[in-house]
Amino acid sequence: MGAGTMYDVVVVGARCAGAATAMLLAGTGRDVVMVDKARLPSDTVSTHGLLRGGVVQLSRWGLLDRVFATGAPAITQVLFDIEGDSKVRRIKQRAGVDSLVAPRRYVLDELLADAAVESGAELRTGVTVTGLLRSDDGRVAGVTGHDVNGGQVELPARLVIGADGRRSRMAGLFGAEKLEQFTSPCAVFYTYVSGLAPDTYAFHIGKDRFAGVFPTNDAACVWLIRPTPLLEPIRTAGSDRSKAFAEQLDLLVPELGERVRAGRITERLRGTANLPNYRRRSHGPGWALVGDAGYHRDPITGHGITDAFRDAELLATAVDQDDLPSYEETRDVMAREVFDLTRALTAFPAPERFVELQLQLSDALEREADALASFPELTALAA
């Protein structure tokens, strides 16, 4: 499309949530452009692990085989370790899938963006959105910004979707208030380790600690979550953070610490603390929010990519039916139980209660996967 052309939809953010939304909307025949300030492919903070619901969505969209073709291993079993008592369970067939997957984000985001372009969306990277176009009645009518060379960008559109993450500039421009929020008292650190089992998710639970392993394309993401003050030995270690991380695993989860030391840490340690958890108002005249821009939870319930996929489809369906209020209403109903469980788990109750909450979480996520599997097939994307 040329300069000044009116798009049906501008999607600001071209990662999981934005690319999936653009793919689905373009698949319905709409003129869609997605913009991102980053040059893709590029990495972003993520623990990568998809549970069943996210795999269901990839399968329904015809993209699961593409994900496996990138080298992301099929996860066929899960190890649960509760204070040293370990059990391994095979992943059973349910909702049409019998394995899980944890792709690196630079792989998954590019794959989704490519799928959006194949569906007819336009992709423009290196574009920073700084403002909105508005009609005479105040309705959002597009975006303004600049490219990497400082050139001015103006994209008129009938609908602008913010998919720009938890630090969403678009939410601020839209004036999207938070409907509910709390701050997590936890911190998470993670790195990548080679030499670990490629077919197994691992979860280790103990007093004031939750650790795990998600095998990815080229290594395994190994993570540790604790109440923030208890991770000070890592937070204050400076350039020795990776060493401090390994030492904490040795102390808290000896079995996992031993496996990490037998392998090789391949990348720098990453982490974050005291994350915001919230639901935002996610639609208004001429605008909507999707992904972390509209709804975000602490990684202790590790379900963010599936949230993004779910909300992308809910939003695309609502746009197709010209019923944006139904998007937010359905999102909030589907997210309610997991949001509440996230709040409870971040309080790190005694291990027995933590395990009970994890079982409730597992049941909730399996029921959500069933619901996602029942969504109508999008035949335009089935090729």
UniProtKB/TrEMBL annotation:
Annotated InterPro entries: FAD-bd, FAD/NAD-bd_sf, Geranylgeranyl_reductase
Annotated ranges, domain FAD-binding: 7-332
Pfam family, one: FAD_binding_3
Gene3D superfamilies linked: FAD/NAD(P)-binding domain
Name recorded for this polypeptide: NAD(P)/FAD-dependent oxidoreductase
Species whose genome carries this gene: Kribbella speibonae
